Amino acid sequence: MSDELGRALDRISRVRGMRGSMWVSAEDGIPVAQLLMEGVSGKAVAALAASLVRKISGTAGAVGAGRVRFVQMEAAGGTLLAALAPPDLLVVALADSRVNIGLARIEMMRAAAAVAP
Amino acid sequence: MAEDIRSLTAALARDPSSLVYAELAEALRRRGQRDEALRIALHGLARHPQHVHGHDVLARIHADLGDLDRALLAWSKVLELWPGHPGALKGVAFVRFRQGDVVAAAAALEQVLALDPTDAAARRALETVRRGAGAVGAPAALPVAPAPAEAQPALEAGEAGAQERPAVFSGFDRATADILLLDERGLVLAGGLAGADGADVSELAAAGLAGVSGEAKRTGEYLSLGAWRTLVAEAETANLVVAPAGEGALLLVRRDRSMPVGLALRFAERARGTASAWLEGQGA
Amino acid sequence: MSTTVVEPWAEHPLLRYVAESSARLVVVMTPAGQVLAQHGFARAVDLMAASALGAAIMAAAGALAQQLGERSFGALFHAGERHGIHLASCATPRGPLIVLTVFGKETSIGLVGLFYDEFAAELRRAAPAGQLREPVLAADFEADLNRSLTSLFHG
User: Fold this and answer.
1) B 237-276 residues with CB below 8 A of C?
2) Which domain holds residue B89?
3) CATH at residue B9
4) What is the mean pLDDT of residues B56-85?
């Protein structure tokens, strides 16, 4: 993976509670680069995160909220985070429930901004 | 036929998320059990809002029930998902024909024939339409029409108007403009959502949210995250919080970007509690 | 548009695959292009064309793989402006099968690929051992559509 993308994933993955992070092609839902713990399916994370972001983005557009920049889904057993890096990338992170979402968000938004054209 | 319905019903009971709902709804429709067919189709489409075949079956059910407007909406949805869908184009042609718009009916059938010149049934139907227009053999005056724009749901911003809804969230800031409660079928239960121009966009938002909820549920299951609790989207002008509110209901809260996300989540949690209590009182 | 199968064991996996992937068209066929199951096709002629072309593409890709010293390629994916196609083979106790999936913008290759893996595994689990019985050509989808049209316009 490219140095820049790899360094970004490395910083994100250091946030306590992270199970993995990856760059995803937003339209195709396939991994571009990833740093995942054992047992985490990059293929599944990429496809499902991209689909979820696409769907909530549609709703956001329909209700006049504008373009989505960050998505967080909290569940009983963990959290999925995604920052949009236009035009065509997402940076996605999978974490357990104790993750500091604020810190993860900062790193992810920083990573997304760094690759923006 | 009865055996078909029995086995399809059993299959759906075994797996309520199965696409077999569409076959069952179609079988019920053909048997004349239209209300039951409608119920099955709507339930299935709530789970699978992008299912082309489901919308096609729904359109036929509405057509059988004489509800041409809803039939047209459903076929328009099919064409939105699958431009050039021959069944939907024929359905649109049928509705327009019944509504007396022979020009639009002919245009839709001509689209079918443009895609498949060998479609004898469409050709016969076009002759029927033209006879109805008193123009046998004459070419249609209009160019091939795209999926009918006028068939957009009458639920668009500015058209629906705010309906009378239970004042579940009275006392909450912007109770009927930024808080929406919908049921598992994507139908609005309470609250409301206003567009930038102040028009009610509740139903438009509700239509998309069923898909979001399903995707969140699936994501939680496949990634071993468990049941989802909240979904937050930070967007350019607003933050959205989506959360399940009990018995399949869904809550959407929209807050201005000036409100921190943490606070928006707390606000949404209060609204969810209110919604859950109200739903319980409804016997949900 | 509907789902039809020659072998009943393929039905549930196919229905599930279509539901999860949001695929528009799916054909399950033998390497010879004989259709085992399908979803979404309205006309027999389209189904036959798709299965013949899909089998031919896989055969050509297999030949190319051999040239390169590979056993086979995993899956093929082509992206179009409005549609994408995913083509892959899977081994089952009934013999090798090929699955052609056509999808639109409402889903993604990521989702199709993800749920294809599950579909292939389910086909392997569900398929009984032994030869496929003689596949029946695609059902008369057109007759059904035309019957409906006749009743709509003249009913």
Assistant:
1) none
2) 2-142
3) 1.25.40.10
4) 86
